[in-house]
Structures are given as structure tokens and as C-alpha cells.
Amino acid sequence: MVEQDVGSFEALHTPALSTGIVYQVYVSEQRLVAVKIGGQFDGGKAFTMQLGLIGAIIAHFLDKRVQRKRAVLRQLWASRPLDELRALDPKNFELPFEALTGVELKKAKLGFLGGSQATLLLRKSEGKPMELTLQSKAAAMEALRVLEQRLQGRLQVDPRLRAA
Hints:
By secondary structure, this protein is α+β, with helices and mostly antiparallel strands. It has helices at residues 45-48, 52-77, 82-86, 137-150, 159-163; strands at residues 5-13, 21-28, 31-39, 93-96, 100-107, 110-111, 114-115, 118-124, 130-134, 155-157.
């Protein structure tokens, strides 16, 4: 039986003592599958941050290139099965819905390296909770739509996020 893909959104996961990893999180009927599409500092962001205002202008144009690359990856992966996507990189992961004890989507505060829109907290039955950062309003709204559709009643949403 083929899993039906409910939707997907982009999220940043920042493990301890490491730079962030950007994932495309696919939501199916049974699970979440996170597929690595890049790093937090892709396109030379670490370098351009050191250049102040000029660096911000350069980073804007470099970010456009990174976003185009990620869009191409999303298109290439659109027709592939989730198990195949999961196997592409050792940092990819999956979370079955029955392994989650709670899911919370809350409006985030401004982060150290720029504002994020929302934080998705996935509480697992075993181990520490996983926190994913949704960096854009579009990603936050798409995550809200997709997760509400799949986790009817198990998703706790910050009222400030709905008002935004």
C-alpha cells in the first residue's frame, strides 16, 4: 500500500553544538518524514554575516540561489516514495504518529540570527522532545494546515500564531 502524502513544509532543526539542518518535512497518513535539503548557512551566510550591511545585501542575493536549489530538490522528490527519500541521507529521520505523545505549534520569539515565525515541538514517547523551527510565515501556515488536517485534536496551537 502506498502512503498518501498529506503535505509538506520546510523546517530548521538545530542539534546541540551544531549548525542547523534545513529539512523538508513530509506528512503522510502514518508519519512525519524529514528529508535534508540543506544547511542553515548554505550560500555563504556565515561569511556574509560578518560584513554588516553590505553582507546583508550580498546574503539576500545568495539566499535566492539557495531557495531555487531547494525548490528544484522538492520538484525532483515530489513523485518519489517516502521510504526512498528517507534513505537518501543518514541525517534524515521519521517519526510515526503513534510514537508522539504531543505536538505543539507555538509562535516563536526573535532568534539570535534573525526572526523565526514558529516552533514545532514534537514530544516523543521515548527520548527527548524534538524542536523544529519554522523560519517563514508561509512555512508556519503550511505546517499548521497540514498538521491540523492529520492530527485533529492532538495538535496544540498557540492562539497568537492563528492571529498572525
